[in-house]
Amino acid sequence: MTHTDRIGGDDARPHARPSDGGPSPLPEIHEVPTTAIAEVLRAGWRDFLRAPAFGLFFSAVYVAGGIVLYLVFAANGKEWWLMPFILGFPLLAPFAAIGLYEVSRRIEAGEPLLWPEVLGVVFAQKDRQLPSMAMVILLMFMFWVFVAHTTFAMFMGMSALTNVTSDPFGVVFSGNGPMMLLVGGTIGAIFALVLFSFTVVGLPLLMEREVDFITAIITSVRAVTGNPVAMLSWGAVIAGCLFVGMLPVFLGLFIALPVLGHASWHMYRRITG
């Protein structure tokens, strides 16, 4: 059986949760080639077309949140404050994938796509290890926002905070602006890489199996370090697609988020299958 066959659904298997409530066995980590990226994206697109209502529903939360943030900042004349949130958006995007993981799992297992059951799996995560992982993600996101503002102030000075609203491009592309963008971008990339390493396998593993979030993080990091080229390329594809999806007033996320969420489940299967 080829890798493509497994992505198409022949690798279906139930949740690996022990009936006695004990910890689940950890999956083996396999090597994946960079060609797997195109394969999982195609699989993600197929899943989205198979169940578009679920993808649109889960992505709507993020689209609405982005629009509300923009309106709040615009009303106060501080649209530039939205920039750290936009750049940090990939840190929060994994949350949208939980429901999409379950949809893809049901498609590959041949199980019915029923709203009560899919949402039931999502809400059931509150009693498992996902809230602990959520705290890690949120803390890193908030710390990133703080670091982004601090970096801006260090390079640009406090006076730039008043000028950036009226002439944002003139401020960030003059004087110390390019260096600020370089340093801030490097720091942001490090944040994104660390959190990507924590969640790319960690989140679907927490949903599928009974493991603690520390074990999930360690397993996820092992998967990334064991497949550095493929995983770094996959992370770059995710970040690029999310950034492009946010450009047309966040509306592109209606497509980018569900396709990437479904594709992430298939990448998880490739790594652990």
Structure overview:
This protein is mainly α. Helix content is 75%, strand content 0%. It has 15 helices and no strands.
Q: What is the first-to-last residue Cα distance?
A: 12 Å
Q: Write down the overall geometry.
A: globular
Query: Could you report the average pLDDT, rounded to the nearest whole number?
Result: 83
Ranges where pLDDT stays below 50 over 5 or more residues in a row are 1-15
- By DSSP, the count of extended strands is 0
Radius of gyration: 20 Å
Structural class: mainly alpha
| Main beta-sheet annotation | none
Strand content: under 5%
Give the fraction of residues assigned to helices: over 70%
Helical run tally: 15
Question: What brief labels describe this structure?
Answer:
disordered N terminus, mainly alpha, 15 helices
What topology does this entry show?
Elements: H1 3-10, H2 35-50, H3 52-75, H4 82-87, H5 89-92, H6 94-109, H7 115-124, H8 130-156, H9 159-163, H10 168-172, H11 177-199, H12 202-208, H13 213-226, H14 228-246, H15 253-272
